């Protein structure tokens, strides 16, 4: 699996799935948190229409700045560039990452 310079994979970290270097924050976490923030923003602001293409949300204003600001507040120790690389990874490997999100969600439901 080819990752960007700010993303790494290690078999003993998050099941070998790509994470932001120096953290345990997986690309799937970035995708999941972005989805939460999009939902929050679309209900908080009547001016923001929910984006049609989820994978392009960090490419278009005003979503880019709004969602990035919230992600940086969630993880103040993570750089904007690292978050954008994680998002780029998601865009290039969309099916794979979405499958991982579904598997993680299913595993979480079983553990409850």
Architecture overview:
The chain is mainly alpha-helical and 112 residues long. It has a single domain, classed as Orthogonal Bundle (Arc Repressor Mutant, subunit A), CATH 1.10.10.10. The chain is 54% helix and 4% strand. It contains four helices and two strands, in the order ββαααα. Strands 1-2 form a two-stranded antiparallel ribbon. The termini are far apart. The model has no long low-confidence stretch (mean pLDDT 87).
Supply database-style keywords:
single chain, 112 residues, mainly alpha, Arc Repressor Mutant, subunit A, globular
Q: Estimate the strand proportion.
A: under 5%
Distance between termini? 31 Å
Largest sheet: 2 strands, antiparallel
Order of the strands making up the biggest sheet: 1-2
Element order: H for helix, E for strand: EEHHHH
Number of strands: 2
Share of helix, binned: 40-55%
Quick one: overall form?
globular
CATH level-two architecture: Orthogonal Bundle
Mean pLDDT score, rounded?
87
Low-confidence stretches: none
Radius of gyration: 14 Å
Q: Please state the oligomeric state of the protein chains shown.
A: single chain
In CATH terms, what is the fold-level topology? Arc Repressor Mutant, subunit A
Task: Determine and state the CATH class.
Answer: Mainly Alpha
